Amino acid sequence: MITVRQVREVKLSAWQNTYYPELWRGMFITSKHFFQNFGRFIGRAVGLKVKRPLVTFQYPEERRPIAPRWRGRHRLMLRPDGAPRCVACMMCETACPDKCIYITAGEALDGRIEKYPVAFEIDLLRCCFCGLCVEACPEDAIRMDSGYIDLGGYSRAEFYLDRDYLLKDSALTTHSQFRGELDGVVVTRVDLLAQAKHH
Amino acid sequence: MLVDLGIIIGKIAFVLVNILNGAGILTWVERKQSALISDRIGANRASILGIRLLGLVNSLADAVKLIFKEDFVPPRGLRVVHFLAPIFAMGPVFLTMAVIPFGPPVEMFGREFKLQILDIDIGILYILAFGSIAVYGAMLAGWASNSKYALLGGMRASAQMISYEIILGLSLIGPILAFGTMEPGAMVNAQNQYLWGWIPTWGLVVQPVAFLLFLPAAMAETKRAPFDMPEGESEIIGFATEYSGMRWGMFFLGEFAEIVVLAGVMTAVFFGGYHVPFLFDAVEKAGQAGFHFPWGMYIPLGEWTVVILRMLAFGAKLAILMWLQMQIRWTFPRFRYDQLMRVSWKEMMPIALVNIAVTGLVILWLNK
Ligand code: SF4
Ligand code: SF4
Questions:
Q1: Counting beta carbons within 10 angstroms of the beta carbon of residue B176, is it exposed (0 to 12), middle (13 to 18) or buried (19 or more)?
Q2: Shortest distance, CA A27 to any CA of chain B (angstroms)
Q3: How many CB pairs below 8 A link A and B?
Q4: Domain annotation covers residue A154
Q5: Whole-complex ipTM
Q6: Are residues A20 and A109 in the same domain?
Q7: Where are the domains of chain B?
């Protein structure tokens, strides 16, 4: 059913309709802010204890608290023995509205599970961070990290997350730091399995 | 002869350096002022060896960025015109400042020199003439870009600037009548008289309506918010759409220079130029330079102190007027284009004409 919302028109008084008083009021308001902040700036510069004037977070040094329910970058969970929990069931790939998860399944040889992800890639540049992949996963293998995650990068390739990257603990680590660490070799049981399979 | 030449070159250099620096610093002022108005801190990240200078380094970084950015000319755009347009937008602005006196005449080497580059009788006409050349910058930029949007932006720019050019001219007729001269230097001197002995005859006092018309018209000429339709920064279609790098920068440098120059013109015509109320030099007060207050107080000052005070006064007035233009830019929402045209032709134009008529009548009545 269509509901109609009545929008009440704001009637301007004749005084306001001449605009000029309102223009001056506007100037007065912005000027007040200007001079107040200017004064506080100077006050702080000369060492007076004045109220901190401005609300901006000085970003890299000062970070804005994030809501606890905020969900950021994806992460693949591990079993206690270090193998990924993912069973390559493709549920997340299917659920993803942006079709930005690419999984290549391989047969697991240890007999406990049938498949494991040989490759698990997420194209973050296409991802809309909807969290549907997390919802879809039957194994609780994919999660999205809360907390500060620095998602900046200098190239497209940096946003194309591969399996090893996703397996690393992303909490409280920055994107770039990850990349640095990943230059070292991360060997998981999956790799060993994969190697075994190739032989 | 050589001294003359040296002094002329010195004056030109002084004015040019000040306008260029002023324009550069205004890019910083604009950021910081808008930040303070909206309770932010503003640009402060760029640094040289950890020195941030309150964000001034950002302006340097900007310049470096603009210079090294790709200089893009649209394929099938008119290369030559595309190249000339920013020059047309920026060049004439600097010429305008030539007729503005930035200080009182000074005595040096036994001769008197005016602190004004060009002392011509038609000063105001000169200002208006060179002000209107800036229209070509925007128009040619739109034309040469081979882009419909840029062309539309250029059209809007020329229509707007020509409309407000008229208001600009008409609003200046009031002061011309009131001071009986077109020469900015003489205008400034005419503002050192006092009504009933204590109200300085600044343009603002004798021609308040003209000032209220001049200020918005002048701001429309600079193409800055609330009159920034031609630029269309917020919708990214304007005459400068197809410009990049330093050529784009030149449009905006020209714009900032225009702010400085307009502040100069306003100071000269409406704010008493370099005059400080009740401050006189030796020539004006029979050898007694200093403050002569209407209640009889007299503070003697040296001849050069007066000169320096007056130049500082000019600078201060300039700064306040630039601040005002910035404040207006960050306070008022922009017009719609039809409103812009309506304000110019249907509202400001009649007021300007009435102002001229009333001024003329009053002058007739006073001289009767
Ligand atoms: S968060 Fe949404 S868009 Fe991103 S990978 Fe998961 S399902 Fe796809
Ligand atoms: S992450 Fe979960 S949903 Fe996606 S393939 Fe692995 S087990 Fe299936």
A1: buried
A2: 6
A3: 38
A4: yes
A5: 0.83
A6: no
A7: 71-366
